[in-house]
Queue: 4 jobs
Job 1
Amino acid sequence: MTSNAYVPETRFGFWFLGTNIWRNHVLKIAIDDLRRLTDTPFPSAPIIADVGCGQGNSLSLLNAAFAPSRLIGVEFDAESLSIARATLTKQGIDAELQQNDCANIDLPDSSVDMVFCHQTFHHLLRQEDAMREFYRILKPGGRLLFAESTRAYIHSWVIKLLFRHPMHVQRTADEYKAMIRAVGFEFDARNVSEPYLWWSRSDLGAFEWFGFGVPKEREETLVNLVATKPRD
């Protein structure tokens, strides 16, 4: 199965995505942040699609956070899916796994309550197509939980050194928000977080180690948001 829709990770990046650092200090922090960005409670026993689920580390966290009635992991990379299957078996998590790219998801229209997409878009070449797919598979009133690194982070020297991305499609936080709104999703400022976490900075937080404060004027490196598909 081949695709021209995304750029695969380096071997270092692939290894890093399977570490406890990634699970506990990136994924979990993002999910905790997203949970607080909603105006109304999340649905009980939702159907959740984790699009770009990678090696499956997010699935147990989503299961614990939202107690879904159905949990679906969508991932294109076959090696990642193989690891995800082993991880689910080890953890005793009941989830379905599908090999699809984000721009062509094998789920019916209006079939899920929540789409979770974490740190996936900066790999994608067909970003608008993927966002339209998220809108299509969500039920009216469904939520998009979106967490992404911005152009400022992906273009930083340390990320260029260790990871691989399609540099020409990277977006600022405002550009990601504009794309999500253009598809039809709705959200307000209170549904958005732009955390300036140490690992997302080109200096890896070194200025703060030496007593300098976080710059007030900066290009944001992360954007987390919860958007809603309007009801008919």
Job 2
Amino acid sequence: MNSFLGYGDFDADTWFIGMEEGGGDSLKDVETRISTWVKRGNCTLEDCAEYHIAIGADHLFTPPVRAAQRTWDWLMRAQLCSEGKPHDSAASKTMQGERWLRHGSKTCGLELLPLPSPSTRVWHYDQYSSDPVLVDRATYSEAMLPIRKAKIKCAIDEHKPRNVVFYSKKYLAHWQDIVGVSFEQQNGLAFAKAGGTSYFCTLHPTAQIKGAGQKIAYWQDIGARLADGV
């Protein structure tokens, strides 16, 4: 909970930061994830494909990838757009299978909270552990958020990514704590600049956007902003 931050490559130009990853549906799943992480060296950043293959989720990465993971799909499209590459559904599936959040991939994804959970409305860890920090989600969040915010801020200060994308406007207050400045808001996007890094707070990739083609346009705009750093 204190040292694992996410997946990929700190040398990436753009970092994507979410609230927490999915999973943790059962005690067996959590034990497999933690024991695999320990066996692989307690890495601060894991290689996403290698790690998920090791825990038995190889369908996410074994080519040909049949469907992009729902959250990653739009993040990958924004990343590809920022690189001036094709960024449709087929391209995102190819990216997921070949280089998304891999070591040395120039892609990076972090999580504000460390433990996987099926949703923010679900809490199983009081059944899995007697640790008083895990008695409920509120206690866990109160204990972990200051630690995790500080670690993410230190990582940004050390590696100086060109862009940081925080996805989910619901947690804007937490993102502003990490950045240390207030975000300006315009057209469904919040943004700030500090220490040479451009920060963006977007809708969650799974959020619905009304209007034909509007979701594609929204994430294309973010990709263009990542390319320009504004």
Job 3
Amino acid sequence: MQRLQWIQRLQAIAQTGLTYARDPYDLERYRELRALAVEMLAAEAGVPEEPLRLVFAAEDGYPTPKVDVRAVVFREGKVLLTKERADGRWSLPGGWADVGSSPGEMAARETIEETGYLVRPVKLLAVLDKAKHAHPPQPSYVYKLFIRCELEGGAPRETLETEGCDYFTRDALPPLSLDRVTEPQLLRMFAHLDDPERPTDFD
């Protein structure tokens, strides 16, 4: 995880330099630095360089973390998970935050889009630094927001991104989509279910 953080920092320095530098020699050095970050991340993640190069090249302006919003919906002591078509594994409903939508609005919208359930956001349970958890390596630096939502209606359904949804107990979790959520993170969410007065977690 430390190597991934170094790589992300190199990419951020390169992106900042390419945004603000004017000297052509400096710009070339920052391009070389970005290429080095791509090479290092490809080796770390065991993936081809070209897709990463395209991802890094698309990023411009001052680098800031991306925000991943996840909805946490409980019913009868079980948590709502959705099965991702991308990898056939399970995750909390959610995704990247959209400009113009609050975190609560995102949690509610992602839930109905991915599961068919209508929910109401009620509490921010956790703000986590993705780099400090056991997720697979990725180019972007990410903050994860977990938002408790109350079930208000709707019915389960499949979507373009998901193969359905179901509720699971803490001791019978299915194979998880680790890029999106980990078991320790879900157990933190169950801790909030056990203690509604528990303050927001952060790291």
Job 4
Amino acid sequence: MQIVSALKEVLKEGPVPLYYQLEQHLRERIVGGEFEPGASLPTEDAICSQYGVSRITVRRALSALQDDRLIERRRGVGSFVADIKGGMNNQLTGSLREFLAAAAALDTKPLSIQREPAPADVAKSLRVPAGEDVFRLKLVGSLEGQGPVAFLNIWVPLAVGTGFATSLRSEVPIVRQVEQALEAKLTRAEQFIEPDVAGAEAARHLGIAADRPILRVKRIYYAQPDTPIEVAYVRYHPERYRYAIDFKG
């Protein structure tokens, strides 16, 4: 009770919005190690009670922490501290339409599609129980005149239907076809770029050595209401792919 009373004294009415004060205090508790990576935060009701604020204030604070990737919010489950690795993180925003237009430039060739248990990381990203069955697609993406550029592993929910596998179109990004199969509207995507090695399977399709350093991209696509509908891991050919950003003042 003393802890709850103390927390209620943290936030003060004034020119600084309560949701911003709450966000900063929760941020300090997370960064300070009070909550370990993967640990669940108190429920919205509990935070309301602890700090003496409304549910709207709590949700705005949690949304800000989610935008900064300090926490992950899982519908119907709760909020969890993200597993933040050491290093430098830069967060950029852009147009989903332009992003998908660039993806459509790849000529993709399906290699296989099968039903299998979701790996732990994929299950977490799709917000399904670990080991739950999903569809996994393997594809090679090429550019005219350059040959294979990307090796893709894509996981989608079973809800896309078994007919999805026989109706794939190489000229349309997979996520657009998932969107149509689920009758859901794509709203946003997250992309994470990390260094990796090609690995035996990607190396075979890209024509490079298995231990060759490459860029590995993870993408998570979301539809309304903020529901993940596809997780993709893409390994790019190191001599045929370049990631460029144009910063404007």
